[in-house]
């Protein structure tokens, strides 16, 4: 860091000391200004020197009381003009105080202070000297320069402050956006894990229980149940490997496996039938062709609904798919074992989030006839989804 930057940092950390030092710097030229004909300033007297020191001392509190300090220095300058019967070095502190008013106060106050300073100085010079002398015009020019400099520095500080505020808002917005993206990604990963794992783990759980129950009395059926367990565990391991591979892949163009869709619906239904769930499929209008996001959503909804029917139902489920432009309707209905559904409800939450993200609508609940129904409406095209 260079010495000017060090000096500014020290002044910001010691404002009182810097104000005292600045007042001393103003006092030196105010008292040492040459008294001769070109400047029009008369030789200093002990009283005029005391007045200069008084005005400079008032500058110590100029940043805290800018208007009061300007009034004091202006009165001292007028008195000094009367004492010396002409221009005096006491005008310099008044100009510094006027600059401070223009810097820290509204522009209207600074303009009024500038006009009052001009009127007071010209009046004093007209009464105690010749106001038509060149010194009068020099003083007027310095008054205008003080006000203009105050306005310029004030504007520059306002621009810097506004830029810093915009930078802070932009940084806060970036942090909020990053946090929002992280939250959305966590929810998406949670939905994917639930959809991928819940179906197969449910099969493993039920079929392993069946195998354990039949192991002694019906070993052949127990063997078949263990086969289903092995198949389901192999499927979940494969899907978990694919999902983790996607999570670990950078944006380097590496190819990944395509997301499942309704084109794999037959495989999904067949896997559920092998677990013992009787699935009846009704399709109207043919197998619909959906946008990629809606297609994945439809597949996951059917997978979750059939898994819930397998876990909580009475052993059967009806799947109905209707392709009616501009929407595709998917319904899964099943009888509820024991008349009540138990579970965490995370599956339904995940389904609802997926459907809403795809621009669709989901209804899930009792159908009024002792069963449970999941009904989803999805847009039949990407344009409808947007």
UniProtKB/TrEMBL annotation:
User: Which CDD domains does the UniProt entry name for this protein?
Assistant: HATPase_UhpB-NarQ-NarX-like (cd16917)
* Reactions accelerated catalytically: ATP + protein L-histidine = ADP + protein N-phospho-L-histidine
A GO MF term: kinase activity
Q: Which Pfam families match?
A: DUF7134 (PF23539), HATPase_c (PF02518), HisKA_3 (PF07730)
EC class of the enzyme, as a word? transferase
Q: Where is the Histidine kinase/HSP90-like ATPase domain?
A: 293-382
The keyword Transferase belongs to this UniProt entry's keyword annotation? yes
Record key words, sorted: ATP-binding, Kinase, Membrane, Nucleotide-binding, Phosphoprotein, Transferase, Transmembrane, Transmembrane helix, Two-component regulatory system
Q: Is the keyword NADP assigned to this protein? A: no
Q: Where are the bilayer-spanning segments?
A: 41-60, 67-83, 89-104, 111-128, 134-153
Gene3D superfamilies tied to this protein: 1.20.5.1930, Histidine kinase-like ATPase, C-terminal domain (3.30.565.10)
EC number(s) reported in the record: 2.7.13.3
PANTHER family, sorted? NITRATE/NITRITE SENSOR PROTEIN NARX-RELATED, NITRATE_NITRITE SENSOR PROTEIN NARQ
State the name under which the record lists this protein: histidine kinase
